[in-house]
């Protein structure tokens, strides 16, 4: 999913593989591995800046999934893990709805 910020465009990743049991709320603990789609039983949220590739991954919060599994909400704390140059913010928070079309 694409997020348009004031000065940049971002991509939002939502991953609930391995522990998806249907609609509900999923905890966002720190990632046990460094990649998306690891099938490690951990719900994950990540944000990548489109132009630079700067990447933040969730280290806390919750991910909500609605009854159809294609929308919900996210409240997450994210920590910078890579990309050049290092952005001025190494921790960010996101809060809001998400939808897959």
Write a structural description.
By secondary structure, the protein is mainly beta. The protein has one domain. The chain contains no helices and 7 strands. Strands 1, 2, 3, 4, 5, 6 and 7 form a 7-stranded antiparallel beta sheet that branches. The chain is globular. It starts with a strand and ends with a strand. 20% of the residues are buried. The mean pLDDT is 85.
In short:
The protein has 101 residues and is mainly beta. Helix content is 0%, strand content 51%.
Query: What average pLDDT do the residues reach?
Result: 85
Radius of gyration of CA atoms, rounded to a whole number: 13 Å
How many separate domains make up the residues?
1
| Helical residues, percent | under 10%
Head-to-tail CA distance between termini: 9 Å
Order of helices and strands: EEEEEEE
Low-confidence residue ranges:
none
What general outline do the C-alpha atoms trace? globular
According to DSSP, the number of beta strands is 7
Counted by DSSP, the helix tally is: 0
Taking the sheet with the most strands, its summary is: 7 strands, antiparallel
- The assigned structural class equals mainly beta
Strand content: over 45%
């Amino acid at each position: 999913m694409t997020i348009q910020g004031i000065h940049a465009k971002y991509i939002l990743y939502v991953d609930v593989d391995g522990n998806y049991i249907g609609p509900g709320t999923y905890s966002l603990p720190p990632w046990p591995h460094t990649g998306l789609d690891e099938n490690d039983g951990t719900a994950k949220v990540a944000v990548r800046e489109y132009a630079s590739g700067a990447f933040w991954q969730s280290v806390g919060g919750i991910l909500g999934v609605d009854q159809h599994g294609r929308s919900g909400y996210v409240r997450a704390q994210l920590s910078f893990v890579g990309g050049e140059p290092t952005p001025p913010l190494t921790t960010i928070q996101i809060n809001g709805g998400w939808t897959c079309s």
